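Reviewer comment 2.1 asked that we show a complete input and output for one of the modelled complexes. We chose the zinc ion case, as it is the one discussed in the main text.
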Amino acid sequence: MTEETEKKDIDQNNVSKDSPEGQNKDKKNPIPLGKLPKKPKMGFSIYWIYGLIAVFFLGIQYFNFSGETKEITWQKFELIVTKRNIEKIVVVNKEYAEIYIKKASLKDTLYKDIKDKNGANNTFGPTPHYILNFLNIDIFNKDFNDLQNKIITKDTVNKTAQEKEKIINEVNSIIIKPETRKDWGGEIFGWLIPIAIIVLIWIFIMNRMSKSSGGGQIFSFGKSKATLFDKDTSVSVSFKDVAGLEEAKVEVMEIVDFLKNPKKYTDLGGKIPKGALLVGLPGTGKTLLAKAVAGEAHVPFFSLSGSDFVEMFVGVGASRVRDLFKQAKEKAPCIVFIDEIDAIGRARGKQMITGGNDERESTLNQLLTEMDGFASNAGVIILAATNRADILDRALLRAGRFDRQIHVELPDIEERKAIFMVHMKPLRFDPTINIDFLGKQTPGFSGADIANVCNEAALIAARQNKKIVEKQDFLDAIDRIVAGLEKRNKIISKEEKKIIAYHEAGHATISWLLKYAHPLVKVTIVPRGKALGAAWYLPEERQLTNKEQILDELCATLGGRASEEVIFGTISTGALNDLEKITKQTYAMVSVFGLNEKIGNLSFYDSTGSQEYSLTKPYSEKTAETIDSEVSKIVAAAYVRAKELLVQNKEKLVLLAEALLKKEVIFKEDLEEIFGKRPFDEEKTEAEKKEL
Ligand code: ADP
Ligand code: ZN
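Response of the prediction step:
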């Protein structure tokens, strides 16, 4: 029963905010370790296609215009025939005539318009010199015959019989050669252009799709998208790089041993486990741990995410699973790491509303089949990560599949210190920085958050041209990761500023006065991220929370709104974040944790997740009403209590708010000046001393 310990309280003045938390969204930014830059591939690229098509077009243009053929009129044709300069005529497709001039006649000035492709005059080439278009082959034949007869009658006047015969022969010997030609260029073009357009569109779509799903390849739909790290791109992560997580490491080291000396286990008849499931919140180092296993065992490491299997087409997921296992078996012994396996491994058949996602189910089935399919000594070990083992399909957790579960928890203070040490190593930092202190300042942070803090601190220091990273830079980085970037130039009116100051002062006052409220670190009214003001607390690291603690926290969270009412007599929208938190917490208190007398020791929480999709509530209408009324009662009582406390301490509240308005940020020390030392803190330190 871990009640989520909030490390922050951020207020918003704008109800329309869609992001309820002023949290920095990029705070989880896992840096892939051991991921080497990919070698540039000279592979198949879309530009090749573009290039080829362009070359093809140019080529066709070039060949088509190898020589210049002029079109002529019947008049000129008649002139040429009359001069008896025709070598031959080729009638193409009964559509036009190609006219070849006798080589000897080309010198005639009549033909000075004939140019070859280089622009030289009167050359005789294989291409026709002229083209004559006609409408109808029969008319052309008739006209040509008439022309021949005309020439013969005209030219043979006053000629001897011998000469006559020669002329007749010459005129009649003009060959008209019919030819049928296929216009291949045009034909192919007619085909090619539509096909090319379709192909281009297809490629474009594929490209867009594979880009949006992370891959770069076009023709590898059914291929798995696993990234392979092997000898060439060796995984340089070792257990040294994984701080803390001692228990997880012990379990995982066993897997390394399986991979290194399988015989030791198989000789005794033991079976090597096929898979292990790493369960933990995001950023707790699951991927890191899996990489460390591969790095330590010196085996190839396939890494992919559960969502990589999912595509919009049916059957792709299953085929990707098949392909993944095929590749893995080729590389055995190896490790396959599937991140976020819940994307495919969710329990089957639970979506009663959507009617079930067949594609995801068949992907999961394929995964189960493949895991059963290979022999246990094949040397393929599958590690999967999820942050919700409870919603996974039971079949996945059966023996012979992911039968081992390794829990990766959020780091405790000692582990945080160790993680800080790992990630501060590459930084040049002030050696007087107390890592203990940093560990204490970061409750609830995951390993990834801490890595982010270290990086952010270095960036902040660099921005101020510092030679080394100082303590303040780390603190600023922590603030930034908790609450987002400071926005000093957000426009806030004087009145609004006053309301924000009193709101925050209300939180601070109540958390100071109540025994179980989280101790305050600092309060600010400088806007940050989406929040207008914030109070930082240092939650205790506790595994159990009792009823009094929750009630005190509720009261402190309501302190902001209560203060507004006590001071101004009216309330604002600025408490949205507070109210959301309170509603969740109180409902959880009543219906999940069984901390309400009326409802009794019942919990309607369903750890199997099968309730998630159901429309009905697991309790009766009457119980629902009771829950609602109990929640209202608890919140109302807490609000009254908050107001009473503030009325009793009104002068101090005013002092605090005014100080806040003047300084914008105030720390625990300033509160001590106003309220005196917090009695509970002393009690606690006494108790701590005794423990030691
Ligand atoms: P997960 O897979 O659990 O979401 P990752 O393994 O990707 O988290 O962790 C993200 C980053 O956080 C890692 O690359 C590493 O820099 C840092 N990190 C997380 N846990 C640890 C740890 N125990 N020791 C050192 N670094 C860690
Ligand atoms: Zn508030």
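The chain has five domains: 1-36, 62-180, 227-348+358-408, 413-483, 494-609+616-691. We note this here for comparison with the apo prediction described in Section 3.2.
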